[in-house]
Each structure stands twice: as C-alpha cells, then as structure tokens.
Write a structure and sequence with these properties.
By secondary structure, the chain is mainly beta. It is built from three helices and 21 strands. InterPro entries: DcaP, Porin_dom_sf.
C-alpha cells in the first residue's frame, strides 16, 4: 500500500510538469534509520537528561553537574535522517540539482517520558546549477569525506572543522570558492558568557582545492579569511570592534590495501566556531573593548581495518588546543579537548550495520579544572 501511495504521489507530481521534465528529472529518496544505546560514565556527574552531551560527544559539555550520578544510559533513534534529491538535465547541457535533508538531533523540545517526540531540523537545503551551489550545506572549509567511520554522531568532534551553513559556492574542477554566513563568537574581557555577534557585512571567504593522486589517495587543502565584528551594547558599554581571522586545513583519505587512513589537521587565528563545535571562541575583548584573536589548532587520525568482507574496525585519536591569554579570557575558558575511539562494525548485508564503540574524552579549562567521559555505544543502522 505504501509503495502504491508513493507511486501515485510521484506520478501526480510528474503530470504537473512538462513532457521533457518527466523524461529528464530523476528523483531519489535516501537517508537511514539508526538506533543507539549509550552507557556513559561522566567523571564529574552526568548532565541532565536531554542535554546535548547525552545525545553525542560535544566538547565542552562533559564537565558534569555536581550532585548528579556519574553513570547513565540513553536510548535514542534521533540520528535517523531522511533526504530527497532531484537532478534535472536542462537544455543546453545544463544540470539543475535540489537537495534537502532532515534529522532530529540537538533539539530539547521533546522528552523521554512518554512519546520521545522531537522536531525535525534542516541539515542540508540547497540548489545547484552547473558549477554554482546556493543554500545550506557543509562549509567549504571542511572535508566531510575525511571523517572517520565512528558510531558517535560526529566522531572526532574536537579535531575537525564541522559546520553546516548557508553559502554561495562556485566549483571548477578541483577548486571550490565560497562566500559563507559570518558569525562571530567572543569571550568578554576577564571571562564570562559567550558573546555571539552577527554584526558586519563581510561574508567569510573560503577556498579549497581537492587533489586526486595515484593509488586512490584524496587530499584537500582549504583556507579561510573572515572578519570578526561586534557592534552592540553590553550592559552600559558600547562595543564596536573588528579584526581579521584566518585559517588553513589539510584533510585526506589514503587507501592502504583494502584499509584506509583518514586525517585532518587545522590551524588558525580567529577560527572559533569552525573548530571543535565552537569549543573555543574566535576572539576575546581586551580592556579597551577591542577584539584580540585566539589561536587554535587541532586534528585527528583514523585507521580503518577490514577484518573480512563483513567485519571492520576504526581506531581514532582526536585533539584540539586553544592558545588563550588568561589575562584577557580569565581561567574558566576551554583550553584543550582530546578523545579516542575504537569500534567493531558488522554488516551482514550492505545496507545494514550493527556496531559497538568505546570512546574516552578529556576536556580541560585554562584554570586546570577538567571533565572526562567514558562511553560504550551500541548501534544498529539501516541505510535506505
């Protein structure tokens, strides 16, 4: 019955288009269903139920809640996702592509008491016309193809650029050049709550080149230049300052027989939210209210080994460090984050995967306080 309804829906949509569009437009549905069971041990007490850290590893969220128990278990199917794609061949050899994808992560608008209902969120929503892409998708500064095959939602979160946002991108061969949404994150002078500013009219400018080498090795080198800008009133203080940030990131996938080695290495001043899920801010305000950029660097390495056609494992180590000036930032800001992963995955058939993964993470603030997380995760995934 479901197949008949889907066929009727598609047929109706096609009848509303021209005859040539019917013949030249391809429509595909994709995504996957994923269920996770996570046994977590937080060194300083577990975050409350529904907190972001209880969904996946987010650097900076594992310091714990004093008085809470250390060990918790979470069941979820929130990573499940759905996407829809169309590809149309137009007259003159032009190609038009549309893509939208939703999942149910990061929200706190549901609960685990009765129905576990969570709102869908947009992951990707873009249109491509020949070499141009407009809409929301992965930042050009990130190479998602280099991410390790981990069960954790991001996997190596502290060592990788990881941003999805609106952009305008031009692609030509191995080159990608983009103007992307700017957003500045700052630490107040002496420390305190994060200042998030959307001031300024200059977009983030990113360029990337993808290399294809002999033997199947794929590398990418990306660079970013961005304006950090704040123009707002904080209490009785008028903030009006701007500064230039920049960064570079090298990522790659190197085949080793059937196995592969993945890595990313990133350095920059004023990168802020582009690295480690905004574990550190892009800059800090000095006593005069001017922005001073924060230097940061991070990376990960991951080796995936195939034990057989159906069994495989990934071994991943990831890390990030921010070079704060405690005289400006205070001691309560995030300084470093490290995590390690080892897993065993089994695919009895290509679309179906069962797996178990152990991860350990350690976060440290500038004043020496830290938090740690040990997690064993079991997952079942069916790719649509």
């Amino acid at each position: 019955m479901k197949k008949l309804k889907l066929a009727a829906l598609i047929s109706g949509a096609m009848l509303a288009t021209s005859g040539s569009a019917q013949a030249e437009t391809q429509m595909t549905f994709g995504g996957y269903i994923k269920a996770d069971v996570m046994f977590s041990d937080y060194g300083n007490g577990a975050p409350d139920s529904g907190s972001l850290s209880r969904q996946f590893y987010v650097p900076g969220t594992i310091y714990g809640v004093e008085g809470n128990g250390n060990q918790v278990v979470d069941f979820q199917a929130r990573e499940s996702r759905f996407n829809f794609k169309t590809v149309t061949d137009l007259d003159g050899g032009h190609k038009l592509t549309g893509f939208i994808e939703l999942d149910f992560m990061t929200h706190t608008d549901g609960n685990e008491r009765v129905s576990n209902s969570y709102s869908p969120r947009i992951r990707h929503a873009f249109v491509s016309y020949d070499n141009w892409t407009i809409g929301q998708t992965w930042t050009t500064f990130q190479n998602p193809g280099a991410l390790p095959e981990n069960l954790d939602f991001v996997g190596a979160a502290d060592g990788t650029p990881f941003v999805r946002q609106a952009l305008v991108k031009y692609t030509n061969g191995g080159w990608q050049i983009a103007l992307e949404n700017p957003e500045t994150t700052l630490t107040p002078n002496g420390g305190g709550g994060r200042i998030t500013s959307g001031s300024g009219v200059i977009p983030d400018v990113i360029a990337r080149y993808n290399f294809k080498l002999d033997g199947g090795t794929a590398l990418s080198l990306a660079g970013i230049v961005r304006q950090l800008d704040v123009e707002e009133i904080q209490g009785t203080t008028q903030l009006d300052s701007s500064e230039v940030g920049y960064g570079v990131s090298l990522a790659g996938v190197i085949p080793i027989g059937k196995d592969d080695f993945k890595f990313t290495a990133t350095y920059g001043e004023g990168l802020g939210r582009y690295m480690a899920l905004n574990y550190a801010n892009a800059g800090v305000l000095d006593a005069d209210g001017d922005i001073s950029t924060i230097t940061s660097y991070g990376g990960f390495v991951s080796y995936r080994h195939w034990w057989s056609e159906q069994w495989r494992s990934s071994f991943t180590v990831s890390g990030f460090t921010a070079d704060n000036d405690p005289m400006l930032t205070g001691g309560a800001v995030n300084k470093s984050a490290y995590s390690g992963y080892v897993n065993l995955l089994y695919s009895p058939s290509k679309p179906l995967t069962f797996g178990v993964e152990y991860m350990h993470a350690l976060n440290e603030r500038e004043n020496g306080t830290d938090g740690d997380l040990n997690r064993i995760m079991f997952s079942a995934k069916y790719a649509l």
